[in-house]
Specification:
The chain is of the alpha+beta class. Helix content is 26%, strand content 26%. The protein has helices at 25-40, 134-146, 158-175; strands at residues 45-47, 57-60, 63-64, 74-75, 79-87, 93-98, 108-113, 115-121, 127-133. The two termini are 26 Å apart. Bound molecules: zinc ion (ZN). The site of zinc ion (ZN) has 5 residues, from α2.
Length: 179
């Protein structure tokens, strides 16, 4: 079942997601619904707070850039991250444009570390530790921010951030639920 998206201005996007204590049918159903919702919107990642569930859980299907000029972009397999912990960011960062299903139509460059270590639980309940780099690391960090109440626009600084304000106000107005 597709789930309604929480848009910029919704307080749930600013809350820290609660730890998932048990991977039960409810969590499995939530993940299945999140996958359907993400794919429907052609998203590359989705965090539980974006579908109004304040939990430390997100999914990714990160893009993989082509290795040669005549090749196409592909996608990494779908990944589920429950109660994630990110560590060991590399000092070197890289900047590229990000967007977010909760902030439609807004894109801005964000600098993030090239590589990070991620410890998380998968849907089978197994704890794993893995290194991610490039776009995959970026999508993971973007989604991990969501479960900490952080949005990518918070990482856009100075004049560039100010330039986003009119668009953000518009989104807030358009998607706010009438009282
Ligand atoms: Zn997002």
């Amino acid at each position: 079942m597709k789930l309604p998206i929480a848009y910029y201005g919704d307080p749930i996007l600013r809350k820290k997601g609660a730890r998932v204590e048990e991977i039960n049918d409810e969590i499995r159903q939530l993940v299945a619904d999140m996958i359907e919702t993400m794919d429907d919107k052609d998203g590359i990642g989705l965090a539980a707070p974006q579908v109004h569930r304040s939990l430390a859980l997100f999914i990714t299907r990160a893009p993989i850039p082509p290795k040669a000029e005549d090749e196409e972009w592909t996608s990494a397999p779908l990944r589920v991250f429950i109660n994630p912990k990110i560590s060991d960011p590399t000092p070197e960062g890289w900047e590229t444009s990000e967007g977010c299903l909760s902030i439609p139509g807004v894109y801005a460059p964000v600098t993030r570390p090239w590589k990070v270590k991620v410890e998380a639980t998968n849907l089978e309940g197994e704890r794993f530790e893995e290194e991610f780099s490039g776009y995959e690391a970026r999508v993971i960090m973007h989604e991990n921010d969501h479960i900490n109440g952080v949005l990518f626009i918070d990482r856009v600084l100075g004049r560039l951030r100010q330039e986003l304000d009119p668009k953000l106000r518009e989104i807030k107005k358009r998607y706010s639920i009438p009282k």
